[in-house]
Amino acid sequence: MTTITVWLGAFITLCCFSFLYKDNPFYRFAEHLFVGVSAGYLFTTIGFHQALKPNLLSKVMPATFAVGKDAFNAPELHLLIPAFMGILIFFRLSPNLAWISRYSFAFVMGVSTGLAIVYTTQTSLLPQIKKAIVPLFVHGDLLASLSNWVLVIGSISCLFFFFFSTEHRGPLYGTVSRIGIWYLMISFGAAFGSTVMGRISLLIGRFQFLLGEWLRLL
Amino acid sequence: MDFLLQLKDLDRRIIFVFIALAVAGPMLLKLSFPVVPGRPVKGLFDQLDKLPAGTRTLLSFDYDPASAPELQPAAVAVLVHMFRCQLKPVCMANWPVGGDMAENALEQALKIFQETPDEFYQTMGKPVPPTKELKKGVDYVNMGYKPGGMAHIKGLIHDYLKPYPIDKDGNPTGDMPIFDLGNGKKFTLADAGIIMSFTAGTGGIEVYIGLGGEHKRPMAASCTSVNIPKFYTYLQTKQLVGMVGGLPGAAECESIIQYKGPAQRGMAPQSIAHLVIMLFIVVGNIAYLYELSKTKKA
Fold first, then answer.
1. Does the pLDDT of residue A73 top 70, yes or no?
2. Choosing among B166, B175, B195, which should be mutated to test the A contact, i.e. which has the most A CBs within 10 A?
């Protein structure tokens, strides 16, 4: 990195860190700069050059936009249909004509939901259920037996907890759902620990930049 | 003991100072803690070692600079290992800036690969690569970003190059030797020796797992720390052959490839910062219990 970009990066980082003291104009400057640069970069460099040009323009008008032997391909005019549907989404910007964009959104929602339901069931839900059906006594392996007991009790008790048609009371239902709460608490603890670890890792990354690349103390 | 009650109203900025010192201190003192690779990371590298030289591997860079401190060191380490094993990484992205992340990781990995002495390969029992001057489009490629998520990946199963007429730099992909299988067949997702995603959130490895029944390839993930508990379930069901979890996972990768990078250097600050946070949690709880006992007495 050049000296200017390192100093600029350090300045923006310190602007962001200044929010830890309190909200201030430096932080807001960095925030607005980030939003503006991200939007501009996404729409021009990425959106146009990595999606719109190679996947639409170079196929509809290959002689003008395609490179290499693709320039001699026949135009794929059927791609104008999804292009037209994409243009309809821009009607969201007009309060009176926003309803037109719903046709495109309906298509996107339908395809996404259909794909997600099928694949989530096939590859997440069913394998997880299959893996939860385990032998409770593994011959000669006490640790595996214990692990399977923990898994089965945890799966059943958590499912009990999320069954809200009956009040969580009584020796069976109350006890099992209470065990479910304990399992959930442990999982929340694991999630919290992982989140803290992640945030500290990000801070380490910034400090490595500030102390290393900027101040050259490392 | 009223000191404990005062701690309950501790200004959060004092806590920030403690955390900053806990992170910066070990860095400046150059503290170093040992890193021992765990089973999930070893599983990934064992799988890579099994692949024959010349195998194409698919790496999906599904993150942006916000998650780079956690995922970039792992990406670099995995790419270095692939180059040393003479594998051919095909990089792509489901996140808009993922293509740029891949470019940066490739640049760093190539530098480390070129600096690897021949003795390293002898001690590891691996053949020395015939050349250290790897070429884009021949030994590796960066395809850049494409929108579409699951619908896009589904298309790659039947014809990988259809949505990628050009790579990230604008070079036509049709004639690239990396995609020439030698049998005249189109390159598809099923031709990849392993599929790995560096996942920061949605649109990452779960999309590939979702379509796993169709491409039937071994998969691995490198994820941010926040996602570790969620992704462990995929390891348990053996839908993933390996996983690199957050910065500690990346440090384990660096330990395997014998390179002391930012992840390994970050383990001492990480551990000290965790100790400080634990200390605050314990002291906070003691203060809470003390206040509770005082209220009951009153």
1. yes
2. B166
